[in-house]
Design a protein that fits this description.
Length: about 240
Amino acid sequence: MTTLPDGSEPSAAIRQADDLLGAEPAILTGALVGYARVSTKDQRLDRQTLALEAAGCIRIFADKKSGKDTEREELAKALDYLRPGDTLVVPSLDRLARSLQGLITIVADLRRRGVGFRSLKEALDTTTPGGRLVFHVFAALAEFIRELIIEGTNEGPAAAKARGVRLGRPPAMTPEQVRHARALLTQPYATISSIARLLGVSRSTIYKYVPELKPTGIQQIEPDVPEPRPELTEH
C-alpha cells in the first residue's frame, strides 16, 4: 500500500486507486457475467440483455429497481456468483452505480477479488492497463470532489460569521422585545406572566433575557394580578 510523504496512511479513495492500478490475475480464463438494470418495472431489459449476450456473457443478472435503491437483489447475486478470473460486464456505468464513489467502491472490491470489470458503452475494461488508468483517474477525481465539499463546508460558516451573519437558532427574544419587557415591568400591575403572554414567550425566557429579575423578586413568585376594575359610582 502507498505511504504518503509524511508517513501517514492514504485515504480510502487513494487506497482504492492503488487497487484499480494493480495487475489483473495472470490468467483470465473465467466467465463473462452480465448485469443489467432498469429503474421501473414498466421498462424493458431487452436492449441491455441483447448487448450483454452479444458481448459473450454466459449468465446475466437483471434488476428492475432505481440505482438509488441499495437493496438490489440481482446485483448482490451477481457479485456473489463471480469467481477469480471472471469479468463483470455492464451495458453502461450508470447501470451499476449512480455515483462515482459507488462505482469506484464496487470496481475496487472486484479487483481485490481478482475479478475484472467491463462497461460496453464507455468501452472501459479493467483487464487492460488503459482501463485501469481511467479508473485510477476516477478515484483521484472522487477524492478531489470530497475534499472540495469538506473545504466548502468548513469555509461557509467562517465566511458567514465574518459577514456578521448569526449562525444557529434565532434568539427567543429580540433586543427590542427585551426593551419592551423592561419597560412594561415598571408598570404597577405588570407581572412576569402577563408580559410573557404579551410577547409570546415563556416565563423562563423572560428570566433568561432579563437576568436581574431572577434572584428573589416578588414578581417571580407571585401569580398574575388582574387589573383593578374602576369603581362604580352612583348617579
